[in-house]
Amino acid sequence: MKSIKKEYSNGEVTIVWKNELCIHSGNCARGLPTVFKPKERPWIQVENASTQELIEQVKKCPSGALSFYMNSEQG
Fold it and tell me: Which of 7, 8, 54, 75 has its CA 20 to 30 A from that of 65?
């Protein structure tokens, strides 16, 4: 499988997704279905939740495929 890394930002936080780590547990889609929509493109729609909600859900990813960084920490 080709390694893909995608980033999705709401301006405050950026969600990073690495496909090769994803084990498809579904935690993200069950926890925040308004944001994580595997059948849609883009499948992560960060505008549908608060920064805090996004961070809390990403921390529940068991595989490490989802991570985040605060934009203020970059640069």
Answer: 75
**Confidence grade of residue 46 (pLDDT, cut at 50, 70, 90):** very high
Q: Which pTM does this prediction carry?
A: 0.91
Q: Cβ(23)–Cβ(63) under 8 Å?
A: yes
Residue 23: other Cβ atoms inside 10 A? 11
Query: Cα–chain-centroid distance for residue 30?
Result: 13
Pairwise CA distance, residues 8 & 4, whole Å: 13
